[in-house]
Amino acid sequence: MASTRALLGLTQQRLASWLGVTRETLAQVESKGRSLPHDHWLPDGRLMLAVRGKVLRPDGTSYPGPPPLPPPPMPRKPLEDRLRYCRHHANRLRYELEALRRQAAPYLARLAALPALRAYEGPVANPAHEENWLALLEGEALQALEQVCGPGAQALLEARIAGLEREAEVLAERLAALPPDPDPAPAPQITE
Fold first, then answer.
1. Under 8 Å CB-to-CB from 179, ≥6 apart: which residues?
2. Would you say 88 and 173 are in contact if contact means Cβ atoms under 8 Å apart?
3. Cβ–Cβ < 8 Å for 2, 9
4. Which helix H or strand E contains 56, and what residues bound it?
5. Any residues with CB less than 8 A from the CB of 50 and at least 6 apart, and which?
6. DSSP letter string over 11-36?
7. If you ran DSSP here, which 8-state letter would residue 39 be given?
């Protein structure tokens, strides 16, 4: 009985109502504390057979039941709304990704220039100042690229974009397979 109840997603109260017993009685039956009263076996048997797609005859035999009821049609609007959301946010994230790439460009340029600046063999006015300046330039670039706009931040945005784009593809496929919504009935005309 508990497995039938679980299969149908029924509360004890709902099943007890079908069987014509109290919820407390059903709880005792399910915990094997008592058996279902004899005069309530018929609804229980009908339900157990119906779960298997069979109809109980009055003589106690059964036969295959009619086909199951179809689930309701998939509504278009929630899918269309989510599709718009995915496309909008994927586009917004693409702009953010481009902004990150623009933000990263000067720091990447610093990293590209630093080896050549350090490789200079000629005299400099203040070698300690120059090395501190170059170290600061490198440190700022590394910190920005690691924590703000570098490959890691860009990869995270790319992953989010890819996820939204894939979700949009699946939604578009589902929507294409659905029949169009029927046109709403025209509003009644008011005549004076």
1. 73
2. no
3. no
4. strand 54-56
5. 65
6. -HHHHHHHHTS-HHHHHHHHTTSSPP
7. G
State whether residue 3 is helix, strand or coil: helix
Look at the pTM and tell me if it is higher than 0.70. Answer: no
- Rounded CA-CA distance 41/50 in Å is 14
Whether the CB-CB separation of 152 and 100 falls below 8 Å is answered with no
Token representation of residue 43:
């609804």
Number of alpha carbons in the 13 Å side-chain half-sphere of residue 60:
1
Reported as a single tens digit per residue, the pLDDT across 85-132 is: 999 999 999 999 999 999 999 999 999 999 999 999 999 999 999 999
Residue 177 to residues 85, 126, 173, 174, Cα–Cα distance (Å): 20, 72, 6, 5
| CA dist., res. 17 & res. 25, Å (int) | 11
- Tokens representing 78 are 């929630």
DSSP three-state, residue 37: coil
User: Measuring CA to CA, which residue among 144, 86, 154, 68 is closest to residue 110?
Assistant: 144
DSSP-assigned beta bridge partners for residue 62: 56
Per-residue pLDDT reduced to its tens digit, 162-177: 999 999 999 999 999 9
How far separated are the first and last CA of the chain, in Å rounded?
63
Hey, what are 84's tokens? 């718009």
